[in-house]
Design goal:
single chain; about 60 residues; mainly alpha; 3 helices
Length: about 60
């Protein structure tokens, strides 16, 4: 597990690990398909509904 070193600022860490939801779905959906056997369309739809609810992407 990678952890940032103590000298890395929060802003730099946040910038380095900010990923748009669409990019995350594009990267992860094929793995979900492989792991579950669902279709790519189902995986994209599922992740499109799930990811915005996760703390990482919620801004409120």
């Amino acid at each position: 597990m990678w952890l940032p070193n103590h000298t890395m600022t929060h802003e730099r860490y946040r910038f380095m690990h900010t990923t748009r939801i669409s990019a995350q779905i594009e990267t992860s959906a094929p793995y979900l398909v492989q792991a579950t056997g669902m279709s790519l369309d189902e995986a994209v739809s599922f992740m499109g509904a799930l990811l915005p609810r996760l703390k990482h992407w919620s801004r409120g």
